[in-house]
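pls design
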């Protein structure tokens, strides 16, 4: 799949689920993956910080088989090499990772996502060739407890300046997702709100129901 088709698939998708073993409530990441794919989630990120390269590669390949069969996009956190080796659709880069423009040169057909915590960072990622930027954290989150949440005002201040798709993350759950959607978020990203839920599939469906989508009628009709 080329970049244009991947970006089109990103635009069609709604909920963006990030899967990290440590936040799966004792269950395997692949078990959670199967449930969120069955719930119609179109974007999944594999985010693991500690495994060996071999283990991460093997896990990415397993994720790739399942996401490809379901017609969903697979994004790998941080590791462009693993994304390429596993045949993933993209990589998500933080501020301390490989620069976006360097990643774009190495992998012209992959979606390059970039974390941003300010308007300046978001615009820099956009100009460097990012396929999407993530704005966050919006609310307090256990994944980054030391980071001060940006709040909903950040979305209102950053999103109008972007020409590319954007996602938003950080403490989003069923109680507050309406706020980020009201700010224009079409691809809210979540982790524990789905992966740690008693029924991840049901949690994903409930969150998806809060995101307006022109394709929702096609899915249910």
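designed seq:
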């Amino acid at each position: 799949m080329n970049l244009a088709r991947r970006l089109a698939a990103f635009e069609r998708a709604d909920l963006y689920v990030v899967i990290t073993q440590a936040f799966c409530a004792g269950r395997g990441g692949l078990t959670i993956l199967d449930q969120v794919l069955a719930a119609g989630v179109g974007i999944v990120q594999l985010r693991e910080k500690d495994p060996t390269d071999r283990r991460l590669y093997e896990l990415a390949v397993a994720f790739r088989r399942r996401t490809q069969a379901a017609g969903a996009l697979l994004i790998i956190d941080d590791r462009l090499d693993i994304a390429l080796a596993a045949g993933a659709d993209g990589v998500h880069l933080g501020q301390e990772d490989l620069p976006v423009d360097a990643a774009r040169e190495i992998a012209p057909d992959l979606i390059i996502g970039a974390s941003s915590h300010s308007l300046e960072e978001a615009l820099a990622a956009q100009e460097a060739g990012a396929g999407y930027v993530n704005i966050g954290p919006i609310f307090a989150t256990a994944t980054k407890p030391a980071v001060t949440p940006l709040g909903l005002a950040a979305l209102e201040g950053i999103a109008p300046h972007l020409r590319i798709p954007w996602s938003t993350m950080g403490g989003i759950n069923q109680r507050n997702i309406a706020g980020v959607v009201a700010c224009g978020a079409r691809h809210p990203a979540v982790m524990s709100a789905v992966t740690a839920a008693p029924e991840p599939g049901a949690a994903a469906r409930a969150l998806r129901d809060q995101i307006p989508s022109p394709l929702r009628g096609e899915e249910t009709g």
